[in-house]
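An instance follows:
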Amino acid sequence: MKYSREEVIDIIKAWLAISIAFAILLRGLTDSIFTTFILSIFTVGIGFLLHELGHKYLAQKYGCFAEFRSFDFMLVLAIALSFLGFIFAAPGAVFIHGNINKEKNGKISAIGPLINIILALLFLPLKFYSSGFLALIGSYGLQINAWLAVFNLIPILNLDGSKVFAWSKLAWILILIPAIVLLFV
């Protein structure tokens, strides 16, 4: 994959801001804000990062230009709202330019939530077969990645779900069902 310097800065900025926002929101889960920040980096941060890089990878595989851009105002808003006890996270998006049809656009959009489902499944054993901080990482990693998949599959506006739904309602349902199931594990 190809990255510009600006894109790398935007990815790091968004990863850190999302991790800070969730660390503030979750500060009661551990004894220290630093530990909660580490928890957020390895769960929310990795979920966000790999979700966006999945879009980028597949778009580039289809021969398109694809680059992540952070939405700086939304990053500040996410951190500010976390102090109020909730987060609206729209850290940025992968902008894609090139010749893609509805099917390719649907697949590019589907890969992000699919990656979150895979991550949720990878966190699942930590939740049930470990204890202490590892179990907390597993529990939170499972829940946040399942939630990211479900949220992104909402078929409205520019969310991934609208593009997947426009391409294939069957694919949309087949991705949504395991995401919802994982959300309630």
The chain has one domain: 5-183.
